[in-house]
Amino acid sequence: MHLFWRHGYEATSVAELTQVMGITPPSLYAAFGDKRRLFLEAVDHYLGGGAAAVVLSIKDAETGRAAARDLLTAAALGDTGEDTPPGCLLASSLVSSSAVADEVREELAEIRRRIEAALRARIEEDVRAGKAARDCDAEALAGHVFAVVQGMSTLAKDGAGRDKLLRIVDQTMAGWPAAA
Q1: CA dihedral 124, 90, 145, 154 (to 10 degrees)
Q2: Each residue of 37-95: pLDDT tens digit?
Q3: Which of 18, 32, 50, 64 measures 20 to 30 Å from 42, CA to CA?
């Protein structure tokens, strides 16, 4: 996971992966099928159980606001881990890639869309329940949260520390629309 995170999907070779994992290429292929599948397994591990786990945590949150704060805080902490590369694995592993990686890039985009859609649905639920303003644009608000998550990843890669990212989380949440 750290190799993909640090170097990106395409720049990480099977030779590097097998060396770090202490296995042979045939063992990697027997266990995962190919580098793409190994990468997607690493993404699931990074997300703590895949997109489904993140979606479930959003659904289980007390409110959409709480879910957004949790996502933003997790991003700030994950982007600045002491034992991990800076930034977000999903945001940085395929920033630019060849057409060969289009399928992987689309799979990552789908993961992000699923999580964003879950946040949007949670905000819409709050609107229906009167926990959020009736004129709240759930789609734009969920998109804003993901734009901040992506931006924090870039800031972390550029050297921003945890304190700064957590202050960005606070500032973002200060702009959250008032409840109904």
Answers
A1: -170
A2: 999 999 999 998 888 999 999 999 999 999 999 999 999 999 999 999 999 988 877 66
A3: 64
Residue 161, helix vs strand vs coil:
coil
Is 138 within 8 Å of 177 (Cβ atoms)? no
pLDDT tens digits, residue range 78-87? 999 999 999 9
49-174: which CATH topology?
Answer: Tetracycline Repressor; domain 2 (1.10.357)
CA–CA separation, 173 vs 167, rounded Å?
Answer: 10
Per-residue b or e along 38-49, where b marks 16 or more CB atoms closer than 10 Å to that residue's CB: bbbebbbebbee
- DSSP-derived 3-state class of residue 76: helix
The residues, any chain, with a CB within 8 Å of residue 24's CB and separated by 6 or more, are: 18
Residue 34 buriedness (CB in 10 A; 0-12 / 13-18 / 19+): exposed
Spatial contact of 131 and 179, defined as CB atoms under 8 Å apart = yes
C-alpha–C-alpha distance, residues 151 and 145, integer Å: 10
Query: What distance, in Å, lies between the first and last C-alpha atoms of the chain?
Result: 43
Secondary structure letter of residue 176 according to DSSP? S
CA torsion sign for 133, 138, 140, 142 is positive
